[in-house]
Amino acid sequence: MRIAFFVNSIESETPGYTTTALALAAIQRGHSVVYVEPGDFILRPDDSLAVSVAVLPDAPYKTSDKLHAALKDAAKQKKTFAASDIDILFLRNDPSLDATDRPWAANAGVMFGRLAAERGVIVVNDPDGLAQAQSKLYLQTFPEAVRPSTLISRSIAEIRAFIDKHPKGCIVKPLQGSGGKNVFHIATATDSNLNQIFEAASGDGYLIAQVYIPEAKAGDVRLFLMNGLPLMRDGNYAAFRRVPAKGDVRSNIHAAGTARKVKVTDTMLRIAEMVRPKLVSDGMFLVGLDIVGDRLLEINVFTPGGLIRLADMYKTDFAIHVIVALEDKLTLRRAYGQAMPNSRLATL
Q: pLDDT tens digits for 6-20?
């Protein structure tokens, strides 16, 4: 099969990204891999969809570093394919990274992903589902039993009142954003830094205030789900604990957090089961749940990362398991044609 990975930019990809691990696994299983960027789609006057792609040469890549170097070379001379020449379009961009400097690019994957799905390409995660999830507001559509108490507002008075009701303090962060940017722990409503924090974080729009969960001091747990179920291979769950740096409330690896092995508990599995029906309904093929204690803090449906780190921890290649699942979807598409909608096929 030919699988296309849609990313923010090829230039910003690294050997350590999960997308690189997935591309390597696909090539090792004999598939053709291409990369697509936001400006690469072409909708022609006859309503045909084409795409300009960087084609990874077929080669026995042994490491992600070798593949990444080949990708950089391939990006220098792109080729144009009809959408019908692509079997799987895997949307792996982070819209928040383009929201400020390239707002036209932030929604390109969803918009053109819909067009590709209409033309028979299997698109994961489903673009209609992703359209619902383009901010952290998506978490509010899941059962209250798995979410921390949350306020979403641009009013500092509302946020102060919310913090005042929670003696353990609150986490304040932008509604849009990723990577731990502008995430703050506010201990009390009278915190002298609250005005400055509000000004810094609200520059990105609405703010989320969430009740602080003391277990967060030990970090959060990233648990991968595939087809709505915990991702497992060789008896290991695809899960790790993200431990914040000393004095930091953020567990994000990009924010100097560290990754450690974790034992997946019954509580984590209950949370996964609680969110499974909606994720399946929304066509969310591969997602990352960020769990603290008995609460779900975020659901990463665009670019859940960590598969290379997990492979090193558990000596298990979870990326191969993901590619096998895509092969199964292609078998179903060829059997059923477009009688089965993309959103359903995405999580079968």
A: 999 999 999 999 999
